[in-house]
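In the previous chapter we treated chains in isolation. Here, by contrast, the input contains two separate entities that must be folded as one system, with a combined length of 557 residues.
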Amino acid sequence: MKKNFELQLSGSGGQGVILAAIILADAAIAQGLNAVQTQSYGPEARGGASKSEVIISSEEIYFPKVRKADILLALTQNSYDKYVDFLDENGILIVDDHVKVDEDLPNKVYNLPILNSAFDKFGTRMVANIISVGAIYALLGENVIDKNIMLRSITERVPPVTVEKNIAAFNEGIKLIRG
Amino acid sequence: MSNKKYKLLQGNEACVEGALAAGMRFFAGYPITPSTEIAEISSQRLPLIGGKFIQMEDELASMAAIIGASLTGLKSMTATSGPGFSLMQENIGYAAITETPCVIVNVQRGGPSTGLPTSPAQGDVMQAKWGTHGDHPVVALTPNSVQETYEYTVKAFNIAEKYRTPVILLMDETVGHMREKMIIKDPSEIEVINRKKPNCKPIEYIAFKPDKDMVPPMAAFGEGYRYHVTGLVHDETGFPTNNNEVAENLIRRLVEKIEKNIEDFSYYEEYRLEDAEVVIVAYGGVSRSAKYAVDELRKKNIKAGMFRPITIWPFLEKQIREVGLRAKEIYVAEMNLGQYFLEVERVAGKYCSVKKINKVNGELMTPDEIINSIGGNI
């Protein structure tokens, strides 16, 4: 694998991007890799831009923040506008399909119906974060983190009664990338 | 490695794990970002092992409660951030003069006042040293990772118990809220120190008569040993006095029992210092950026290294002098406007040039900012 992956997950406070990042970091550690997860948010409990970051590496991680994102997830226009500059020149952008992306952005862009899929297929936008985890996982690939380890990490971190729904949401996210 | 448990934990979670491993059985606090998880988890965990958690009305009371609990023999801790740390200062002095072991965790955020509640800063370095009035002993430890937060919370308790003194664990939001891999050790691998108890009969107990190590044995209230505890200057019986000689001896002993034993808890990391001409001095969250910067500067053929104090108080004079004698330049990188810098300059300033790199905007200082500050000067 590549020596290190820098992932940045952003959205509106309450959308669950911090939990999504924790699940990815947890799985990376269970895989035997190093991972550091951080977040930044405002004093408000809901709303406002929320950003969470994960660095996954086979080596020791000193600086805990993303310098150049290999994958940037933006679930809202606000978070896209705020964080798009963090994308590495070879980085991949995942946005919810309502987000308007600059036409001259040179990066590979996945424009996915994350929020609508959550609502249409699962009846709640609350699983949008786990659909996003599925999409990010699909882009990282099985050779970085084993799928069973991902499933275990989700199972351990979401409320017990929602496990089934969240695992289906995870698979939906994979499908959005792989078709 | 097989008996070791890896976990993804937050710095604040690791702090509670460390405290419990050290024997904490009492926590009193008033939740405040970015330290809240420490109170939250303590409230869940302590009742399960027969300990007590109390949410107090404010931080003055929190500090008072942990002192009281410690006097009854329980290992006690509180956790807060800048605004609460300010309110605790008076009673931190009370803990110092009454020689009551306790641990105060300050997960620093942007200040002054309520400042930037969710953002990292290191603005309480001097407050940790001089926040309470009068000459007093201070031990403050500054971890830079989740694992270290665990280990140094244990050490904070050990120092508090061994020397009968309040110990400050000076964290920052970066370390408190960051999640990373942590090894939970087997209890048999953790050194736990307990306070020295009197071995005389209760009637013979002179509560504040120090042994040769300058530390008086400590009886717990309720064990039959009666004594008086006061914030006033007191003699060996614990009762107040205006006697000048007693006052002089007491204040000197309180300070010296820490400063003369500094070798016992001088914790620090040296990174690529062997041939370093440019030395970055950094601690807590910023030291992670500094370490990265050292590697990058080395790639540019700049002989860089890092000295990282973990024991931030008492000041590591001997080690910093050594760094100053060997380096051409020292850069003190910190997320305040130059607090630790003042001490480094005082000690190393006569041997080499000492400059500062500062940031107070609420974001963690980046490796690039350190590199650019140094690069611009070479």
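The interface with chain B takes residues 22, 25-26, 29, 34-43, 61-65, 67 of chain A (CB under 8 Å). DSSP finds six helices and six strands in chain A. Compare these points with the single-chain example from earlier in the chapter.
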